[in-house]
Write a structure and sequence with these properties.
The protein has 223 residues and is an alpha/beta fold. Helices cover 32% and strands 19% of the residues. The chain is built from 6 helices and 7 strands. The protein has a 7-stranded mixed sheet with strand order 1-3-2-4-5-6-7, with helices on both faces. The chain is globular.
């Protein structure tokens, strides 16, 4: 784990020049684009493994890589300033991919934001800060970023965007109340929320979650 001094020495945009892995069909031929954000200590290739498990054709998968395999150094409920510049850089990386897909003719309403663990937290936070109609938002074991009491007065509306939040009730990294909070915030912002809490699952992805995400993608993610 980085100390504060190490954090201060990081480049201002540590993730900006990191690669983005691709799977599925080319963007120009895709019905949907799925931006897949990996967890702490994992990598973009792990998310492409999840893409293979989903088995949905005519979808383009884009998996950005974090510098050092970590989007931000401290736990997601730490004061946000301690997780800079990684946090802002990670959010900007997602924003750049949304913009890049748009430039290829894939507007946000055909883009799915999907993350696991740290990547789920980052995806939820990006979506909340940039609320609009997306094809879907999927958070597998994640919650909104920041300490208890962080204001959640995000502007905008999701305009009926499907949002899937799945997590264990005993996840060692994601308190269940933070999942409930994210679900409530997204409902308030007019997302169509499917929140599923799995007894004693731990910090992983289960078959029901994969089936739910597959159904979302095959069904056009609400389109």
């Amino acid at each position: 784990m980085l100390c504060a001094m190490d954090n201060a020495r990081m480049p201002a945009d540590p993730h900006g020049a990191q690669p983005v892995l691709h799977a599925g069909v080319p963007l120009g031929d895709a019905r949907l684009a799925v931006i897949m954000v990996h967890g702490r200590g994992a990598g973009a290739d792990d998310m492409l493994g999840l893409a293979a498990a989903l088995r949905v054709p005519d979808v383009a998968y884009l998996a950005p890589q974090a510098a050092g395999n970590t989007w931000y150094p401290y736990p997601f409920m730490t004061a946000m300033e301690r997780n800079e510049p990684g946090l802002s850089s990670g959010l900007a990386k997602i924003g750049a991919l949304v913009a890049a897909t748009g430039a290829e003719g894939m507007p946000p309403e055909r883009v799915v934001l999907l993350g696991f663990s740290q990547g789920a937290c980052l995806s939820l936070e990006f979506a909340a800060r940039h609320a609009r109609r997306y094809a879907a938002v999927v958070a597998l074991s994640g919650g909104l970023i920041g300490p208890h009491g962080t204001p959640r007065d995000y502007p905008g509306s999701f305009e009926g965007t499907p949002a899937f939040l799945g997590c264990s009730d005993v996840d060692p990294h994601i308190p269940i109340d933070r999942v409930h909070e994210a679900a409530e915030v997204f409902r308030r912002m007019q997302a169509d929320v499917d929140e599923r809490i799995y007894p004693r699952m731990g910090h992983t992805v289960n078959a029901d979650e994969i089936a739910a995400v597959r159904a979302l993608l095959r069904g056009g993610a609400g389109l």
